[in-house]
Structures are given as C-alpha cells and as structure tokens.
Amino acid sequence: ILDDPDLKDIDPTVLKHCHAAAATCILEAGKQKADISAISTCLEDCKLDKERIEQFCTEYQKNKDALEILLGSIGRSPLHITDVSWRLEYQIKNNQLHKTYQPSYLVTLNVENSDSRSHPDVSFSCTMEQLQDLVGKLKDAAKSLERATQM
Fold first, then answer.
1. Ranges for the COMM domain (predicted)?
2. Is the pLDDT of residue 3 over 80?
3. What distance in Å separates the CA atoms of residue 17 and residue 8, rounded to the nearest whole number?
4. Angle between helices 36-45 and 50-74 (to 10 degrees)
C-alpha cells in the first residue's frame, strides 16, 4: 500500500491507521455476520459518502464467504491459561567459556481452548526484571478487570 503512486502524498502514519481501521471494520463485520444494511449504517455514522459505502459493501459481499471460512479456521475463543510452572536457571558459562552467572526463569504456561483442538504449552525464558514486569502488567490487568466488573 505504501508503494502505491496514488497514495504517495498521504502521510504513511495516516495510511497505516486507515488500513488498520478498514481491517478492523471488515473483521468485526465478519465476526458479527453483519448484513449490508448494518454495515452501511455503521459507515454512514462514520461520515463516509454513499459512493464509498456502496463500493465497500460490494467488495465485502464478494469476499464474505472467504472471510467467514478464514475466521472459522482461526478459532472461536482465546487460549485459557490453566496452570503456570517455573524454574530458576543459572547460566554459569557462555559459549566462549567465560563465567557469567546469569540467573533466568523458565516459565511454562499450560493452556487449553474451549474448542476440542489441543494446544502445546507456551514456554519462555526471561530475566528477573522481565518477570517482574510481566507480573506487574498482570496485576494491572486484574485491577482493570475488577474495576470493570464493579460498574
């Protein structure tokens, strides 16, 4: 898209935002199985002109079946973490046999999905600072969720 000569005068950041907005609109319409009238109403609320709305709806209708097949293959719900295990690992020497004594954590997330498909566990290695950052972000997410449920 950025190489298209018709779009060379548009700021690349604005172009990326427009692309993301269009992709989000298409995915949400596919997820909701929205009909053309619902899509038209939504685009009218966004102040798009009739000609562009008609063009968008025509292209959406042409690709609707392929979009639904693609969305169906992705899955219906995100993975759910059922358990976490970790262990402390010390790297004593590096490849050049220099002593390093760097501790790191090996973390394994046991995950499952509501679909019947099996998923391998998610494993990663991190430093103590990275693990503390992850824990802090998880605490922030838990607080946000708690506040949202109290409203």
1. 80-149
2. no
3. 15
4. 120
User: How many helices and strands, by DSSP H and E, does the chain display?
Assistant: 4, 3
> 88 by DSSP, 3-state: which?
strand
How high is the mean pLDDT of the chain? 84
Q: Long-range contacts for 131-134 (Cβ within 8 Å, ≥24 apart)?
A: 131/105, 131/107
Q: Which residues contact 42 (CB under 8 A, 6 or more apart)?
A: 25, 34
Amino acid identity for residue 141 in this structure:
A
Structure tokens at 38: 């619902």
SS3 118: coil
Q: Dig out the tokens for 131 from the structure.
A: 């693990």
Distances (CA, A) of 44 to 25, 58, 126: 13, 15, 48
pLDDT of residue 9: 85
**C-alpha dihedral over 29, 32, 36, 38, to 10 degrees?**
-100
